[in-house]
Write a structure and sequence with these properties.
This is ATPase. The chain is α/β, with parallel strands linked by helices. It contains 17 helices and 26 strands.
Length: about 600
């Protein structure tokens, strides 16, 4: 039997009675999961569970074992000591004094398995345009989750005390409630705001607020993204039918000013939770008056896809111009990169349709202590050293006043009427490798971060860093660099090198060379057109014309365009490389003065 890792907890309920825990379906499922594991491994708990065996001929756990008696045992232990149960003629449980330590282990494993689940509290509550009313609704959800946490911990401790008082010497306030809470409602879109052939969208609940309970840590089945999302210029919505809308939620977000509906199956709510630290959630006024620019369905049944490998990510274009992205329900896509990058690909396709230039890169406002300020954009694929260089620059406190990140990973360029090139951001947070951050940085922001697989290679953290108003504001660019992470600095390859020719610049930028850092399935020196497999390569012919136009405009308007060698992919320079790049960049910005 495949046990679900996602637990949905009713958020409308006030949690005050232990029976709400011990009579829950979640507890029975956890007990079943522990029994199945014990049967398979013959572990320490196996002899204990055999005491509750009722029909050895049955295969299903709930028919083979008396789960109800195990539940009643826990209920009795929440009130009575184990010795009392054994001595009393009222109870019909097996004599368990000789299983005292095993029983305590069972209680510990039950609690730990509960905590290993992805736990979400969902509360249906009408959206309000009044900010105070919304806060009160959020506080109500926080209280219910706090009560649940206290109740779970209280039951767990009381049972352990009644089994063996000596076991509870240190009280740890472990997280036992929901990791995230969703407040949902159903918008009432006007006819002109509805998408044709997408009736399933209007049978679902929409999230208007996310409440996080730090530290938020999720363990997923995958930690890498593979391949490039296919784009098909034909409609698909008329073929989509979701039979179980109660198992899905819609997360409506703004990616810059593009409204995208992210439709998520419950097993991937951890991926959806990460959206809270990356994007601005749309209010219901927008949903009721505006059609979405894109739709992303995360967790479609794999049987839906025409080609076997399309479940890894495919985007269709409706006749009205709406982009529809799909990924399948499969362990291999259980990685936040699939959430973030598909959303950004949809955004970039829309931007290209508007004859604007999407940029896979970072933009920062660098303020020096001498009063000077520069807007520096660094383009490059994942692991090129963009964020690492800016982070290193921010640590040079003697010369740097502050580094304000306006774009962390993806943005777009536009040309104003006067010929000025400006940049717009897409995200209010960052999805970064723990290993590439300054030691201790992510943990200093633990109460705001969402961690993904912190114990393995390519461990990630989603950290909010900006607000929506800042990223949608047009920002003039002063310097535009390509992040070269694979070349070691020497006399022929300086840290910073500028171009005086559009064709030379386009040659470097369009090759998109980098040393892969393990953030995708790629290894070694790789090439990705314009360092942007998220829309640019799928629309390469049109993108090339746009890129040339923008590069010419940048250089004509005296924006310095060049290469910044971060050395992040050079063995032995993983830490020092971005710091050297930051120091050289600062030296240049200061007019050649030593840092």
């Amino acid at each position: 039997m495949n046990y679900e890792r996602t637990v949905l907890i009713p958020g409308e309920v006030s949690y005050s009675n232990i029976s709400q825990i011990l009579n829950s379906s979640s507890l029975l499922e956890i007990i079943s999961e522990l029994i199945e594991d014990a049967q398979e491994t013959r572990n320490t708990l196996y002899p204990f569970f055999q005491l509750f065996l009722v029909d050895e001929s049955k295969q299903k756990v709930h028919e083979r074992y008396d789960l109800e008696q195990i539940r009643q045992l826990l209920l009795a232990l929440s009130i009575n000591s184990l010795d009392h149960l054994d001595e009393s003629s009222y109870f019909s449980f097996p004599k368990l004094s000789s299983y005292r330590e095993t029983l305590a282990l069972f209680v510990e494993d039950t609690f730990n398995l509960w905590r290993s689940k992805h736990r979400f509290m969902k509360k249906a509550d009408p959206f309000s345009h009044n900010s105070r009313t919304r806060i009160h609704k959020q506080i109500s959800l926080v209280k219910n989750n706090s009560d649940l946490k206290s109740l779970v911990l209280g039951v767990y401790r009381q049972i352990l005390v009644n089994i063996s008082a000596r076991r509870v010497k240190v009280l740890r306030q472990l997280p036992g409630g929901a990791q995230a809470g969703f407040i949902v409602d159903r918008p009432k879109p006007k006819p002109e705001a509805k998408i044709a052939n997408a009736d399933f969208l209007y049978n679902m609940e929409y999230v208007w607020s996310v409440v996080l309970e730090p530290p938020v840590i999720f363990y997923t089945y995958s930690n890498k993204r593979r391949g490039v999302f296919k784009v098909v210029d034909r409609p698909i919505l008329s073929k989509i039918n979701i039979d179980n809308p109660q198992d899905w939620l819609v997360f409506p977000i703004y990616v810059n000013d593009k409204l995208i509906y992210v439709v998520v199956y419950k097993e991937y709510f951890a991926m959806a939770t990460g959206l809270a630290n990356l994007y601005e959630f749309a209010d219901f006024e927008s949903l009721e008056n505006r059609r979405p620019d894109g739709i992303y369905i995360f967790g479609m049944n794999k049987s839906f896809f025409e080609d076997e490998d399309d479940y890894n990510g495919i985007i269709y274009k409706e006749d009205d111009g709406t982009y529809v992205g799909l990924v399948g329900d499969d362990p291999s896509i259980d990685y936040f990169g699939y959430m973030k990058k598909m959303v950004l690909t949809i955004h970039n396709l829309i931007v290209i349709d508007e004859d604007r230039l999407p940029i896979h890169g970072a933009l920062a406002e660098i303020k020096l202590r001498d009063g000077q300020s520069f807007n520096v954009m660094i383009m490059g694929d994942s692991g090129a050293g963009k964020s690492e260089t800016l982070d290193a620059l921010n640590r040079i406190r003697k010369q740097v006043s502050e580094v304000n990140i306006l774009i962390d990973d993806m943005g777009s360029l536009d040309i104003l009427e006067d010929g000025t090139v400006v940049a717009y951001g897409t995200e209010t947070g960052a999805f970064v490798r723990l290993d590439d951050l300054q030691p201790g940085y992510a943990y200093s922001a633990m109460d705001r971060s969402i961690f993904m697989n912190p114990n393995i290679t390519n461990a990630r953290v989603i950290v909010p860093y900006s607000n929506y108003e800042d990223i949608i504001r047009p920002t003039k660019i002063d310097y535009f660099f390509y992040a070269n992470n694979y070349e070691k600095i020497d006399d022929n390859k300086p840290p910073i090198e500028f171009f005086d020719d559009v064709d030379k610049a386009l040659d470097v930028f369009s090759k998109g060379a980098r040393m892969a850092k393990g953030t995708t399935s790629e290894k070694g020196l790789t090439y990705s057109y314009f360092a942007n497999p998220f829309g640019a390569i799928q629309r390469r012919e049109k993108h090339e014309k746009i890129a040339r136009k923008y590069m010419e405009t940048l250089m004509k308007s005296n924006v310095k365009v060049g290469t910044l060698r971060t050395q992040l992919g050079v063995e032995g320079y993983e830490d020092e490389g971005p710091l050297i790049a930051a120091q050289e960049l600062l030296k240049f910005l200061k007019g050649g003065k030593d840092v």
